[in-house]
Every structure is written in C-alpha cells, then in structure tokens.
Amino acid sequence: MPTKEEKLAKSHAKAAETSCQGPCCIHDSPTQANPSGNGSQPLLSGLLLGCFMHAALLQSPLEARTTGRSLAGRIPRRALPKFAAWHVTTQTRLFNHLKVAWGAASAPDEPSRTMVDLGCHAGHGRHKNISDALIWLDIFPGSGMVVGVDAFEDFALDLQYRFDHVPPYSEMRATTKRAFALGIGPKDNRTLHLDGMARMHISCCANGNWCGNVHASLERRGSDHLCKLTRMRLGDIAPDHRLQQPSRYPPNTTRAILENTSPLLTSSGSLYAVPSMRTDTFWSTHLHERHIDFLKIDMDMTWRRMGLEGLIERQGFTVMSVEVDRAWGGVDPRWNVTEADRFAWFAREHGYDVFFKVPCQAGPAIGQSAWYFLVANAKAFAPTGFFAGNKEDGGQPIQDMMLVLRSATLTDGISLAANLTAQGLDECFGWRDTTHRHGRGGQAHGRGRKL
C-alpha cells in the first residue's frame, strides 16, 4: 500500500503536468527546458519561485486553489544531510564557535553581549540542572544581559535561583540576569490555560510517574536538579529558601494539578492560567529593543505561534537557534512545502542566512559537535521539505534551525556565517586528516556540573 508521502508525490507529479494558474504565472517560462526530461513543466526558480513562496507564506485559500495547485508539483528540493539525534547537545559547541568568531577570549574588554533563552527549563548535564542560559554564562561570563523565559513557573524560578544564589553565576554581578514565568504566543495580552503542560511537568517531577523515579535517584547522589522546587511544593522533599520565592498560584495548586482535582479552579475553569505575549512584544517591553546577540527558542510550537515576525523584520538579533519539532507539522499538501521551508524563506527575505545545525562526532578532544548546512542565503534558496516526524513518513529527527544576520561581519572582514560554517566543517571533518588538526579542543562547558 502506498505511503502518505508516495500518494502526495504522485498528486504533485500529476499537477506538474498542468499549465500555470494564478498571478505568479507572469513569471513563468513554459518554453524553458525541463532538466528532468519527463515532459512536465520546469522546476520553479527565480521570480516564479519567489512569488510562489510568498503566496505559500500568506496561505490564501484562493491562491492555494490556483497557484498552489498548479505549481506545487514543480517545487525544487534541496537534498538534506543525514541528521542524528540528539541535537541539543551541540549547543555548547555553537557557543564555542561564536566565542572563537567574536574573539571573546575572556578579556577585560570583552564586548557586553545579550542572550535570550525562550524555553529556559534545564535539561543538560548529569545533574539535569543546566540550561542554555547557564551554558552561555559559562562561555561568555562577561555578558551584559541574560534573560530566560518559561511558561512553567517552577522552571523560571529555578533559573532565577541559580542566577542569584549559585556560584559562579551569582558572582557575575555586572551581568543583568532575569527569568520570566511567561507564556509566548501569536497575540498579546492573552491568558493561556496550560493545565495539561503543568500536569506533564509536575508528574515527571513527582515520584513514580511517567519519568520514573529519576529525580529521587538524582537526590540520593546529591544532585540539585531542576525539579527540586516542584518536589518541595508536593512535599516530597524538605523545603529550602527557594520555596520562599513569590508565586502567582495558591500553595496547593501543584498537588491539585497532579491529582487532577479542582478545589482551586478559577472562573475560567483553569488551575494554571499563564499570561502571554508575542516574542517581538517581549523584546520591546522587557529588553527595550536591545539588540540580542544570541536567541535560543525551544517552546514546542510552530514559529507562526511565537510572534517572531517583528523581531525578524527589524533584525533584532544576530544569531538564533530554534528547535524544529513535531509541532511544526509536516508537508502542506496544498503547497508541497513545510513550515521550516516557509520560515527559511521569511528569514531570508529579511536579511538572515539560514542553516540546519547538523550533529557530528568530532575529534577525541571535543566529542560531539555540529556543522552548519546552508538552507538559504541572498543567492540561493530551495525548499528542503524538512519536518520532524516518523522516518517511514519522510520525517527527520528533531533538529535546530539556525539564523545568522547576513550583515554581521567580523574584524577581518569575513562574515559571521562564513566563519561559523568553516569552524563546523573543520571540527566535523577536518580532524580526520592528521595534517589539519586544529587547536580548538576542550570538553563541553556545563556538563556534569553539580549545582
């Protein structure tokens, strides 16, 4: 029986044999030779591809019935590399690559940099207590500002506790360190009812639930893991001063959510109501449009629900790493592209080069690293069809997409994107040639730290 992907490909192949329909057809060249030689129309390129991607981005129902239906089968495909899991472990190497690129060798005059961590829950390290924000501070201790955001309040409070009370972060007094318990969404001034999300996190932190007894095991070896505050609220462990941090929820909320009881229901019928705003609004409200050197996003939602458009249009950051997971969906059958394709096109049109961060095994001195696979820049673009999903359906493991500001150049005149690309290739492939061994060794920061 044909798979869903095979049925879709057959439908698009049939559509490719029809003539162009819709306003984009003014850019079509039907007499152009078709490189596939199968008698169908030529693949989209140039202005026609650009017009098609713009229509696919807007998702007009009328355009879908004309432009989409007649041109979706002519989409070119950029072949993807082989992806490996787990993508998050490569973040440390990216930070090191940025440190090399920026020449920030912990000098007294190191530039004051800004990092924002959207989805700042900790998960790195053998003690499960290191977030990307803390790894950033390990590598860029002279940063001017580091900000974390998480919709689950205990995770945001956990990060703030480490900012304020755990060395070496608590000793970085010249750095503004702030964590926000806040939801991110496509609209401002909305209240999100996230009881399901809260129950998932609380039940993982509790004894004997879907995460097993992993946190009790961590406690037996003295680990100060990210679930400690939640377990204090449940009464599973003795409280300490972190439980004194202000909370927007009544004291028994955590237990009520875990046991699925409702003595504390609000007028909305929710136990876990979370205020939310767009990412670009958060940037203007809480950072006062301060330029962000590195923006990390891992929020289990598609880019369209993050409210990123204004931040990208105004080029408010230099580098972004965003997780592309199952929430982004699969191939849109109306257009034969994915949300990753649309996002890459949108970013490209607003001055960013777009890459996938591809995990690799580097030399023995480094371990796991990453190289950066080009998806789009000023000169080139073709949809990849990437989506996170089952292999048998054409999906890939969850991966990070990286945006680099095209105008960002280094003191030697080389673009930041070119420098990062060269470092990744060197670490992932150059070490195999003994004549090209490099000196950027060292173990990854933040792993195994007992906080």
Topology:
Layout: H1 4-15, H2 46-58, H3 61-71, H4 91-102, E1 114-118, H5 132-139, E2 145-150, H6 153-165, E3 176-181, E4 183-184, E5 190-193, H7 195-205, H8 214-220, H9 228-234, H10 253-258, E6 273-277, H11 279-286, E7 292-297, H12 309-313, E8 317-324, H13 339-349, E9 352-361, E10 368-376, E11 399-405, H14 416-428
Parallel strand pairs: 1-2, 1-7, 2-3, 4-6, 7-8
Antiparallel strand pairs: 5-6, 8-11, 9-10, 9-11
Q: What is the string of SSEs from the N terminus onward? A: HHHHEHEHEEEHHHHEHEHEHEEEH
Residue windows where pLDDT falls under 50 for at least 5 positions? 33-38, 434-451
Number of helices: 14
Terminal CA distance: 53 Å
CATH structural fold name of the largest domain: Rossmann fold
Structural notes for this entry:
This protein is of the alpha/beta class and 451 residues long. It folds into 3 domains: 4-74, no CATH class; 87-190 and 274-436, Rossmann fold (3-Layer(aba) Sandwich), CATH 3.40.50; 195-271, no CATH class. It has helices at 4-15, 46-58, 61-71, 91-102, 132-139, 153-165, 195-205, 214-220, 228-234, 253-258, 279-286, 309-313, 339-349, 416-428; strands spanning 114-118, 145-150, 176-181, 183-184, 190-193, 273-277, 292-297, 317-324, 352-361, 368-376, 399-405. β7 (292-297), α12 and β8 form a beta-alpha-beta unit. α2 (46-58) crosses α13 and α4 packs parallel to α5. The termini are far apart.
